[in-house]
Amino acid sequence: MTTSTAPLPDTLGDTASGIRTPRLLTGAGDDLDRHRQIHGALPSRGADLIAMAQAAGLTGRGGAAFPSARKLAATDRASGIPVIIANGAEGEPLSRKDAVLLDRSPHLVLDGLRAAAAAIGADTAFLCVPAHRVAHLRAVIDARRESGWDATPTTVTATPGRFVDGEKTALIDLVSGGPGRPMDQRRSASVSGVNGRPTLVHNVETLAHLALIARGGPRWFRERGTADEPGTMLVTLAGADAIDGVLEIDMGTPLGAVLRSVPSLAPGDLRAVLVGGFHGTWIDRADVGRVSMSARTLRSVGASPGAGVLRYLRRDECGLAATSAIVDHLASETAGQCGPCRFGLPALADAVAELLARGGAENAARVARLADTIDKRGACTHPDGTARMVRSACAVFADDVAAHAVGRCGAPGGRR
């Protein structure tokens, strides 16, 4: 499992078509004057930003890809004064996109928070990030206020440090004074969220794009990406031993082109790719050439871009071993408040470990049954994402299942 937290480059190379001049990762850092030179002043759009986001076709970059304008409009229509939450929790072990964005372009994120708050009439804003980022971002917010750039009242809140931290209801629970646990959501957050108030939760990357749309407009935003999925997105690339870095790519960039930006991944060395992170979907190397980083093409192989995590698997790695390590982690990272998480995920982790050790159709069938048992029955989507990832592993690594049944590993080199 990859846990590296070393500083990351903005880009890994220039070999991938679709990797062009960055919009988000422009390198201004904490320097507000430099940020102003690059992006200019933030226009006061008010509620007009909602129509601009709709015309731009912006979708959320936190994983669900829900239309940003619909969330803004629903919160704006609700009764009561709204709350807005910027989600920078990034509990996914393989993701670094939010961390890199908050390091390299924090003012763009905070501009988006300011613009979105004005659009829906929010008087309270929260920025939720891992504890080690709190002091830095508080200092950035203080500097913005002292300079007169931004008077949006924003509280920086430390997340507990778990995989489920970024789940919307967990963030609402956290800023409401709770421990940050996912909750059953009987009413939409846009109607009743933080302490019963209408609440908008947007990923920090989504907010940064909103700040750009407020400046450049919908037509400019659509100059990149595809007609159906416009704009750019941040992608984290990772292998077995380290996270390689973060790229800003056009939506719709071929998956193979993105992977070619990893210098150490030689042609022919790829075995499979986990698209979307630990809650993502394994894709066989044979399918890589026919899909792109778009929801439309990835849907054809049962996947989605998710939060932009690509975990590539080399030919000498065992897919079952990689999957077992991920499921072990996910089973240990639950909120522990429902049966599928407390009992189902540990049982699934044990079953996948048994499949790794012994292979065979019977053990594979047991894994499939357990995945079906926990799916769509939890208090949040944590069990669902785990079940989806495991099912894709059983399909893509079917040869490994058979090989392990006779005491060998299907991966050349046999890394298990």
TrEMBL record:
Q: Indicate whether Magnesium appears among the record's keywords.
A: no
Q: Which UniProt keywords apply?
A: 4Fe-4S, Flavoprotein, FMN, Iron, Iron-sulfur, Metal-binding
Cross-referenced InterPro entries: ComplexI_51kDa_subunit (IPR050837), Nuo51_FMN-bd (IPR011538), Nuo51_FMN-bd_sf (IPR037225), Nuop51_4Fe4S-bd (IPR019575), Nuop51_4Fe4S-bd_sf (IPR037207)
Gene3D superfamilies recorded: 3.10.20.600, NADH-ubiquinone oxidoreductase 51kDa subunit, NADH-ubiquinone oxidoreductase 51kDa subunit, iron-sulphur binding domain
Limits of the NADH-ubiquinone oxidoreductase 51kDa subunit iron-sulphur binding domain = 320-365
Q: Which Pfam families match?
A: Complex1_51K, NADH_4Fe-4S
SMART domains hit by this protein: NADH_4Fe-4S (SM00928)
Please list where the region (Disordered) is annotated: 1-32
Coiled-coil regions in this chain? none
According to its UniProt record, which cofactors does this protein need?
A: [4Fe-4S] cluster; FMN
Q: Which family does it belong to?
A: Belongs to the complex I 51 kDa subunit family.
| Protein name, per record | NADH:ubiquinone oxidoreductase, NADH-binding subunit (Chain F)
Which organism encodes this protein?
Williamsia maris
What is the phylogenetic placement of the source species in the record?
A: Bacteria, Bacillati, Actinomycetota, Actinomycetes, Mycobacteriales
